[in-house]
Structure formats: structure tokens, C-alpha cells
Amino acid sequence: MAKRIDVSGLTAYYGSHKAIEDISMTVEPRSVTAFIGPSGCGKSTFLRTLNRMHEVTPGGRVEGKVLLDDEDLYGASIDPVAVRRTVGMVFQRPNPFPTMSIFDNVAAGLRLNGSYKKSELNDVVEKSLKGANLWNEVKDRLNKPGSGLSGGQQQRLCIARAIAVEPDVLLMDEPCSALDPISTLAIEDLIGELKERFTIVIVTHNMQQAARVSDRTAFFNLAAVGQPGKLIEIDDTERIFSNPSVQATEDYISGRFG
Amino acid sequence: MDISTQNTAAPPVTDQPSDAQQKRAARGATRPGDRIFLGLSRGSGIFLLVIMAAIAVFLTYRAAIAIGKDEANFFTTFEWNPTGTPPEFGIAVLAFGTVVSSIIAMAIAVPVSVGIALFITHYAPRRIGGVIAYVVDLLAAVPSIVYGLWGVLFLVPQLDGLYGWLDDYLGWTGVFSWQGGAPRSLFTVGILLAIMILPIITNVSREVFRQVPQMHEEAALALGATRWEVIRMAVLPFGRSGIISASMLGLGRALGETMAVAMVLSPLFDIQASLLDYGGGTFAQNIASKFNEATEMGRDALIASGLVLFVITLLVNGAARMIIARRKEYSGANA
User: Fold this and answer.
1) Is the pLDDT of residue B335 over 70?
2) Which residues of chain B are within 8 Å of residue A161 when distances are taken between CB atoms?
3) Which of A222, A195, A191 is nearest to A204 (CA)?
4) Which residue stretches of chain A have pLDDT < 50?
5) What is the dihedral of CA B123, B127, B131, B134, to 10 degrees?
6) ipTM associated with this complex
7) Which domain of life does this protein belong to (chain A) (predicted)?
8) Chain A within 8 Å of B10 (Cβ-Cβ)?
């Protein structure tokens, strides 16, 4: 259940290209931390290092430490597959499995983890869909394909799928950028509820969204195109948006660049 | 003011444009390039239908002549003697040989092809995958007569051991018992056909697996799926209809393969209970080996057998289409 993330000296590469350099931060359990910054600053790359998805990309590799409570995710004895079972992820574009029903989508992670009785699966699927505020909309069509839902519903289905396996951390990579404002609001409300149970990290291009949903905000920037992205500062969201300690942060959130 | 009243005034009934004119107006202006391309593509579509109809009409017409003289029932006779009285041309032997050898070929080729395609797209380093894909393409370019030569001169002499083993362990089933004759049986034909249809099934499956959206594979990975689980959750279900289509292309080739089958299969016209005993025949092999010396009646009989092959192919393709359509909403095409 909800764990603390402690990153120190993390650098990530795509082949020989250094995408992010020397990032250190702490993410508190049961809080929402937002990553903001201009395109190409490495915030998504950094997010993907937190569940070892970065190294799935050909040429992707990581140096540094990511501690989940006291366990180093990049330790020699750690299986990346096991990491991804404890650190869930929601993507920019809703990606329910098109060949599976709504029920099977939510149950997919559980079935990976082992065999469950039908009644157990039913319970978890219902609980997860309720947790994602989707139950009332889909309870009568659990056996219909997930791809038949609207974009916002699909994204909540993906959140239900991610939380069904009870991860310690939930990573969200611009989860609302493909959604309309009403669906966005539904997801933002949901994030507020989910932080009672999970540690949440969200990447967003929408600064109002960062201000609305997060407790802490991290600002990333890069010196120039081709240079690695760096963490400029991380602080309480209120402080970042009112009185940041670095000038570049203020310039970015006030719309002077980016 | 004047203009607007003119425009809104209802036209007199007698000036109503004709239906054709209305349709033309609804279509709007067309450009020459559009018209030419429309004509070309529509023409190609029609051409295909005409060719198909021409083949069907030819087969049906010539076959009807033979079937008209069919006093010995051609479904139940096991002989091919179209010049005899009454003329005998047993379709059953050919249908059995064709279908059985193709089923053996599919049983071997489909799993192996899907495995090769998955290895190329999801396991092998890019360069090794490229080399393997190239070799598979080469395999497709080998003419069937060369496969026939290889089959009869190399493959057949190697099979005694396998046949003996099958007879020892599975002989009790009857299907895999072996009397010790030359291994020029339907089973050997099936193995050879499997090798011949491997490239097309592999290549089509490979393209389908390449098209699996990255986001579906990442969805599985992010849930903590291993590579095999990613393939099982995201790749194979997405590629399912493509694998079926690929298999149908391969099956089409297996059903119709002529030269290699004619060279390998022992020309004993009969149905054997065991797959391993020599003898049997397929439609295409039978036509190829008998056509040159056939009389008028003999040719019509061969064409009748060709019609049956045509119908079998249509039925198989129809069945495959139904399987694909049945789960259309889960196909991923609507994602």
C-alpha cells in the first residue's frame, strides 16, 4: 500500500543521448505529485523510469537509484516485471485491450498474478470499477468490448485496470490530454479520491490541472534542444504557483515561455 | 432584395429537375483525375468478378457433361477410369487426399509460421530478425518443381526413421500404422506442403504482428506482463484475424499445389486407412498427371474434379470469413 518514492542521482539515456540528468526527489505516500515543464524536458521519460518502462524502449537505460520505501527498483536482484506489478501506470491515450471485454480488461492484471476464483474476480472488478467511478455506467455491459466506451470512460477503465492489482504507486502520463473538459473533470475528481489509497505521480501539460489536483509540483526544464532535461525545483503546489524560488519556474507558469 | 426573392421563390412545377439531374447535382463537380481513377478502380473490381464468373461457368459447363454420363456414382466409386463402361471417376479419393494432406500441412505450418513471425517481430535482435525474414522470402521464391525434386530425392529417403517411430508408438491408432512401403504417402506430402506454405503464412503474420499498436503492448507491460504474457494478451488476440487470413492463403496454396505433390505421391489411386501407407491422390496432382493422355470424356471428368476443388476452396474461405466476422467487435479494428 502507498509507498514513498525516493529518487537520487537518476540519469536516463536513449542510446548515447542523455534524456534526463541527475534527478533527485522524494514523493510522499498518499499524495499527488505533478510534473510540469515544456515539451522534451524529460518529464515523461522520468515518469517511465519509476516503473522501469523506460528500459523497454530500444537503447533505453538508467543510472541512479529509485527507492520504493527502502527497496531499490534498480537493484541487481529486482525483476522489472515485478516492479511493474507494484507501480501501476495510466497512459496518455486510453489503451484498453481491444480484444477483451470490459470485465476482462479490469481482470487482466489479476489473471497475470495468478489464478483467482470467479467470485473473487467479480468482487475485485466491481470494487475497481467503483473505485474508478465507472461502475454505474458499465455494470450492465461488462461483457461488451472496452473499446466501445467513450474516450473518458476508456481512460477510467484503464485506471480501474491499473488499481485492480492494488499497486503501491500509480503513475499517470498526461491522462487527460486526449479527453474533453467534462471527462477531464471526472478524472481529476477521481485522482482526488485515489490519493487516499495510492501514491500518485501525474505528468501534465495543463498547469491549471497541476494546480487543481496536486499537493506537490515538480518543474522540469532543459537548457537547450538536445540537452538533457533537469529538475529545476519541486515544492508545494501552492508555493510553486504563487512564489516559486527559481525565476525559470515563474517564467514558465506565467506563460513567458514553453 | 430582388436577388433573394428570386432565389427563394419556388420553381414552377414543370421545371423540376429530373432524378438523374438531381443525383448529378448532389454529387457535385467532379474532376477528370477523380473520374479516371474511379473508372480504373471500378473496372478492376468488375474485372475480378468477370474472371471469377468465367472460371465458374467454364468449370460448371464442362463438368456438367461428365456428370451427365456419370452412371457409377462419382462420390462413391474409388476408381478413375473415365473411358470404361460405365465411366468411373471417383472424386472421393481426390477429396480425401487433398483435404487430408492440406490439414497435415496446416497443422505443421501454422504454429511454426506464427512462431517464426513472433520471433522476427518480438524476440530477435533487429539484424537477426531481418536475416531470418530474408531467408523466409527466399523460401517463397523456390519454384514448386524444385520442392518436388527435393521432396522425392532428399526428404522421402530420410523419412523411414520417422515412419518407424510413428508406427511403433502411434501405430495402434490405425492412422499412423505403416506397412513398410516407400514413404510416398499423404503424410509426406503434408510435410512438404507445410514447408511450401510456411513463407506466406509467416510473412502475412509478421506484418500483422508489426501493426499491433505500441500502446496495447505497453498496457500489458505496465500491468507487469512478461514478454510471453504481452504476446498472449496484446499481440496474438490483435493478430487473430490476420493469422486466420494468412492461414487461408496458405491453405489455398496447399489445396491447389500440383507439381510437388505429383512428384512425391505414389500414383496408387485409392484411400488408405493409414496416413503413412503410400497411395492416394489430390485434385491438382490427378489433373496434372492424367490430363495429357486423357480422352474428351477423361478431360471432362478431370474438369468435374476441378469444380469440386473450386467448391471446397469457396467453402473453406467462407468458413474463415465467418470466424473472423463473428468476433469483429473485438478485433481491435475499432480501437
Assistant:
1) no
2) 219, 223
3) A191
4) none
5) 90
6) 0.90
7) Bacteria
8) no
